[in-house]
Structures are given as structure tokens and as C-alpha cells.
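Sequence in, structure out.
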Amino acid sequence: MLIRDVIRNREPYSTKATATVQEAAEFMAERNIGAVCVIDEEGRLLGVFSERDVLNRIVVPPTRFEIASMTGSYLVPNSRSPASPSPGTM
């Protein structure tokens, strides 16, 4: 099974890198999701912002950082990649 098969009929969840942490957390809560893709002004993927980022990096909410400063670089599989992690990534 491919990732595109799993997400075929889902809304693409993303937010701009200029969103605040509060806005991203509210976005995820409203949709009952645990992570959101962070994109730049051209729509390119910059990283993934997750509940774990909120828990591990935010001390006193609401914080007004731009979430682009909190996302790391992640390997993003192409549409032909299987939906399973690479060895050593889990």
C-alpha cells in the first residue's frame, strides 16, 4: 500500500510558516489531528509541526513564535514510497 492510497480522500492539512503556535494548535484541535504540514509562501513543505512540538518546546502558552522556527528538516517520501518507515527511523 502506498501513502497516496491512505490519504486519497482526506483534506490536505497544512498551515503557513507564519502561523503562530497558538493558531497551529487550534487548527489541529478543531480537526482532531496530531500534526500539520508547514508550507512556505510558494506551497513548498518546510516541515511538520506536531503535538509533540507543543508539549516539548512550549513552556508558557500562548506563545507567539512563528512555527517555521520550530520545525526540523524531515525526509518526505515521494508519492511512490511505501507507507512504512525506513529502518532506524522509528
